[in-house]
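Training component of the fellowship. As part of building independent skills, the fellow (R.M.) carried out the full modelling exercise for a liganded target. The chosen ligand was MU-OXO-diiron. The inputs are recorded below so that the supervisory panel can assess the work.
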Amino acid sequence: MYCTRNVTESIIWVGGCDRRLALFENLFPISRGVAYNSYVILDEKTALIDTVDSSISRQFLENIHHALNGRSLDYLVINHMEPDHCANIEELMLRFPNLHIVGNEKTLALIRQFYDMDVEGRILTVKENDTLSLGRHTLRFYFTPMVHWPEVMMSYEENEKILFSADGFGSFGALNGALFSDEVDFDRDWLRDARRYYGNIVGKYGPQVQAALRKLSGVDIRMLCPLHGPVWRHDLDYILGKYDHWSRYEPEEKTVALFYGSMYGDTENAVNILAAGLAERGIRNIAVYDMSSTHVSELIAEVFRCSHLVLASPTYNNGIYPAMLNFLHDMKALNLQNRTVALIENGSWAPSSAKQIRTLLEDMKKIRILEPVVSIRSSVKQDVMRSLSELKEKILDSLSEKYGI
Ligand code: FEO
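Fellow's submitted model of the complex:
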């Protein structure tokens, strides 16, 4: 049976949620599920904005037929050709013989790469700033490449001033009945997953997100309709501000996230001592993560939040502890930059992980490394306590500076 929500009187959400999928992109844990959004526009002509993942096709098709109420579908606008939004193109072409697919040159190339369907005579190719009139509603197309794939465009409906923003402004998390961000406690229940989604899915493409924000800055947007997560109809500046921060690689908070690998609890002990000392001196919202039991996507999200990072790693096979190495690889791959970092190493006979981490950090942009490096020989002793205290003071000094490196 259908399950839809009205976005406005003539625009209907026809998406759905998957709470069974364990790993988004077969990589990222999604304990809160994920929503795949799609929207029908009813006018003299009818249009569908993107489709959904194959996992929810049955619900999606029931939703479309309910929204159309016996009418045919004239246009399918493909803002993003990633398969989590494109699984139903062929089925829609079969169900609606007069359906035309609206996309750009890159969209069409990807359709041919992913699928074998015959789209001859069914394609409407658009260019930047082209418009498509549906009657009272007009869609204008803004190309926003690499937010998150090269073909991505956003469709702006000029009459109701709604931006269909593809992956932009999306989030992990199933919708649980609520469609709009003002129907949930976003800060409490959604921000963490929105940040994790941005950081891990789109985070590498900060300059391209900045380009998209600049392009859209002169557009009068009253509502943001992403392909994942809640729709924004109030306080758009909140999520636009987050995207501006994240895509500039500027931290949201001046605080410290401490990440450790620890085989027998001694490196963890040093991190706990440092974290407690920082909290005692008034630093709020400190986070401590055991890298071996926390998914790397959570760690990456915290880098987007926090200005200061403490990386604490045993020396393992004369190298960096594997969980830390994986994290550093992800940081580099996602273009993370502009952070202040402190290092703690441990090694029972030849501690060298800090030196190797430093080399990797020096290959990233605008990373400032604080001294001293704390070097532990097996377990925390008085000399290490003194080093930790000295490092704590350096972190506090750095936090009290106007942020900038
Ligand atoms: Fe939700 Fe880039 O696809």
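The panel noted the following from the submitted structure. The longest strand covers residues 306-316. DSSP finds twelve helices and 23 strands in the chain.
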